[in-house]
Amino acid sequence: MMYNFSPAALSARIDPLLDAVLRQQRLVGAVVLVRQRGQDVYRRAAGYLDREAGTPMVEDAVFRLASVSKPIVSTAALALVGQNRLGLDDPVARWLPYFAPRQPDGTVAAMTVRHLLTHTAGLDYGFFQPPGGAYARAGVSDGMDASRISLEDNLRRLATVPLATAPGARWAYSIATDVLGAVIEQAAGMPLAQAVEHLVTAPLAMRDTGFISTDPARLAAAYADRVAGEARPRRLLDEGEDHLPFLEGMAGFTLSPARALDAQAYPSGGAGMLGSAPDFMRLLETLRLGGAPLLPPTLARQMGTSQTGAFELPFWPGRGFGLGFTVLTDPHAAATPESTGSWRMGGTYGHSWFVDPAQELSVVAFTNTALEGMAGPFVTELCQAVYGTGTLS
User: Fold this and answer.
1) What is the Cα–Cα distance from 351 to 171, expressed in whole angstroms?
2) Secondary structure string (H, E, C) spanning 204-270
3) Residue 186 in this model has a pLDDT that exceeds 50
4) Which tens digits make up the pLDDT trace of 89-120?
5) Active-site residue among 6, 11, 67, 393?
6) Which residues contact 116 (CB under 8 A, 6 or more apart)?
7) Residue pLDDT, tens place only, 320-350
C-alpha cells in the first residue's frame, strides 16, 4: 500500500489529533517526531512541560523513560556482544555467580543472556502480580520506586523467588533487563551508567539520556490519567511514591518521579533512564540503518527479528519479541497499518514508539501522561494518523 508521509500530509493528520487529545485533557504534554527515509517529516512539542508552572512543552524536554530504557540497555549489551566481550548464550551465572534463582521444580535455572534479552528467562514484574505477591514479599523493586537498595541487593532478593517457568519455556515481560544491566556491568568492567554512556549514548551524542536528570529545568512533570470526577489529569507526587492501578487483580505501578533526581537510586536497566525524544530517535534511526557505529549489521538485524517463535505475547497480539523490543509478525492480528517486521514498545510514564523498516519510517511519541501515552487510545490514533488510515473523532 502507498502512504503519504509528506510533511504537509502528516501535519494535516497529526496536528488535529494532538490538539484534540490536549483539549480533551487526555494528555498534558507531548513531543512527537517522525522521520522517513532519514528526513524529518514531522516535529511538534505541544501542551505543557509543567502545567502548574505554566511551562510549555519543548522539543528537547527530558522525560522519565520507564521501559523506553530497555532498548537502550539492550543495545549496550549487544554492543558488548559485537566486541566479543559478551556472548548471547553465555550463562548468566558466569557473570553473576550470586544470581541463582530456582525453577519451579527446585533446580537452579540455566539462564542465558539471550533469555534476558528476549524476556524468556522465567522472570516476572511485581506490577503484574497480585497485591502482596511474591516479589513484594521479597522486597523486589520494579525499578521505578524510591528504593535505596543497590542493584545487586535487588537481584539477590529476586533470586530468592522461584521462577514462574524454566528459562526458554514461555515469553513474559519482566525485570529481565535489570538483570541484563548487572551482566553489562561485569562484562564492561564499569558501573551500568558509565557502560551505557560509553557503548551507546556518547557515540550517538545522546547528551540528554542517562540515569539521572542533568537539567531539571527541562524535566517534564509527570501526570496520571484523568479519572471519573476529575476535570484533568492529576500530577503525580513530586516526592515520595505514588501508585497507578494497571489491570484488575494486579498490584499496579509504584512510581517515584523524584527518582529522576536521586543520585542514590540504583540504575534500573529496565525502567530507570531519562532522555529526550530527539535522543531516542537518533538511536532508533541508527538501528534501522544497520547499527553503525554501535553494532555490526548482523546483530542489528537480529535485534529487529522475532526470536520467540510460536510464543504468544500477552497484551501484544500479532507480535513476537526480538533482542530488546517487540516485532510485528501479523498486522491483521495486531490490527495495525504497520508493516510486518515493524518494531514497537512504550514506557509507563506515557511513551510509545515504533519503527517500520519496510517504509523507512521511525516515530517517537513521548508524553508526560500515564498511562494514556503508553497504552491508551492515543497510541492507536497516532499510528493511524501517521499512516492516514484512521479518522479523527
Assistant:
1) 22
2) CCCCCCECCCCCHHHECCCEECCCCCCCCCEECCCCCCEEECCCCCCCCEEECHHHHHCCCCCCCCC
3) yes
4) 999 999 999 999 999 999 999 999 999 999 99
5) 67
6) 77, 92, 176, 177, 179, 180, 183
7) 999 999 999 999 999 999 999 999 999 999 9
CA torsion sign for 5, 10, 61, 363 is: negative
- Take residue 256 and report the three cell numbers written for it: 517515584
Q: Would you list the DSSP string of 345-373? A: EEETTTEEEEEEGGGTEEEEEEESEETHH
Q: Is the dihedral of CA 162, 164, 168, 171 positive or negative?
A: negative
Active site residue 362: no
Cβ-count burial of 229 within 10 angstroms (0-12 exposed, 13-18 middle, 19+ buried)?
exposed
Q: How is 85-109 classified by DSSP, letter by letter? A: SS-TT-BHHHH-TT--PBPTTSSBP
* 42 close to 59: Cβ distance less than 8 angstroms: no
If we measure between CA atoms, which residue out of 343, 330, 345, 248 comes closest to residue 288? 343
Polymer length of the chain: 393
Cell numbers for 301, please give them.
538485524
Residue 147 has what pLDDT? Answer: 87
Helix, strand, coil shares, percent, the chain, to 5: 35, 20, 50
> Cis ω on the peptide bond leading into residue 293 (within 30° of 0)?
yes
What one-character DSSP code corresponds to residue 139? T
Other Cβ atoms less than 10 A from the Cβ of 298: the count is 11
Do 219 and 260 meet the contact criterion of CB atoms below 8 Å apart?
yes
